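Appendix C: a fully annotated inverse folding record. The material below is reproduced so that readers can follow the format used throughout the book. The structure is listed first as tokens, followed by the designed sequence.
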């Protein structure tokens, strides 16, 4: 089988790489062509467009890079048409990937989508295209199974992929400096790291009793983090195993909030984008919380500091709060119910089995 995979963000790159490895176990003769990063490349995927040219944050950034995005779309359609892969696997990245799904459907290539677009938060009209163009949808959040199924999309839920990834990390890094560790997770895109990390670093100077570690994205160079953190007493860490030793965290909203919950790390969620994007988002986004932890818990388990509230004074106050024993215990207790919702390990294996058996059936029918 020849699979064509498109992922536009670091988390998607990571998930896609694990799916590739599992598909190889299911069918060792599989071939993979994709849009992604180092994770997919290391799994054996032939990368044709690098992740670094794909990831934009906010409406304004998408608008500014409109011509680049259109060129990417044109190239993707042409390339897929030339290669005629057996299947398209799309990982999140909805604005771009929905158009690819439509094109693939038109030329008769089945489309499998992993990590659903969050249309339950905004852009609900996208459901029409999803229902029409997606062969099978594999969701990562428990409530999405009922949500998309009721809207006529062929949907499957086998637990959140982060459960698989965290369960595989078994090594424990020691805390050789003897200080409790506070992790800084400023995001996976250069744009958001540049906006969020300086705020987090300013907060760090007021907590001398703690060891601060920046959890770095593999898609961003060490020199970029070194430049931003110059003059601060912080460490850079590209290996997420250190999360097993972390006491508390400051995190930019995203999948990382769930990862911290699985590790039972109290966190403060920080989120700030450009003013234009924020104003537009306020008009269209209709959810009470922005972090997946709070969305799934249906209450404020962790504090969210958004836009104007996301400043040094408030971050410092919130961090002080989660360092107190009573508050820590409450957050960790709330995490336990959330993590149960995320299911058991094994989602990559189950998804790969469904896709491969599906394609065998399609080929068998075509050969009759």
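Designed amino acids, in order:
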């Amino acid at each position: 089988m020849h699979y064509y995979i498109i992922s536009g963000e670091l988390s998607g790159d990571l998930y896609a790489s694990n799916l590739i490895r599992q598909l190889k176990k299911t069918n060792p003769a599989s071939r993979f062509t994709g849009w992604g990063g180092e994770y997919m490349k290391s799994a054996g995927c032939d990368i044709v467009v690098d992740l670094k040219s794909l990831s934009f944050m906010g409406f304004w950034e998408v608008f500014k890079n409109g011509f680049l995005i259109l060129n990417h779309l044109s190239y993707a359609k042409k390339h897929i048409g030339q290669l005629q892969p057996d299947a398209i696997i799309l990982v999140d990245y909805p604005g771009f990937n929905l158009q690819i799904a439509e094109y693939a459907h038109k030329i008769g290539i089945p489309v499998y989508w992993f990590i659903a677009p969050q249309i339950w938060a905004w852009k609900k009209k996208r459901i029409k295209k999803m229902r029409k163009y997606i062969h099978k949808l594999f969701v990562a959040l428990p409530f999405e199974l009922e949500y998309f199924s009721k809207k006529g999309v062929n949907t499957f839920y086998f637990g959140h992929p982060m459960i698989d990834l965290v369960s595989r990390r078994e090594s424990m890094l020691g805390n050789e400096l003897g200080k409790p560790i506070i992790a800084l997770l400023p995001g996976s895109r250069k744009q958001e790291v540049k906006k969020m990390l300086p705020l987090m670093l300013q907060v760090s100077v007021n907590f001398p009793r703690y060891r601060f570690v920046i959890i770095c994205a593999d898609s961003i160079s060490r020199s970029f983090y070194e430049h931003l953190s110059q003059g601060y007493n912080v460490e850079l860490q590209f290996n997420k195993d250190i999360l097993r030793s972390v006491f508390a965290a400051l995190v930019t909203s995203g999948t990382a909030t769930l990862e911290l919950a699985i590790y039972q790390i109290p966190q403060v969620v920080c989120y700030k984008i450009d003013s234009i994007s924020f104003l537009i988002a306020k008009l269209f986004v209709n959810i009470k919380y922005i972090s997946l932890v709070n969305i799934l818990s249906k209450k404020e388990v962790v504090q969210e500091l958004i836009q104007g509230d996301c400043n040094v004074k408030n971050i410092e106050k919130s961090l002080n709060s989660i360092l107190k024993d009573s508050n820590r215990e409450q957050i960790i207790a709330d995490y336990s119910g959330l993590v149960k919702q995320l299911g058991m390990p094994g989602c990559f294996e189950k998804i790969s089995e469904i896709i491969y058996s599906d394609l065998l059936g399609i080929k068998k029918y075509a050969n009759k």
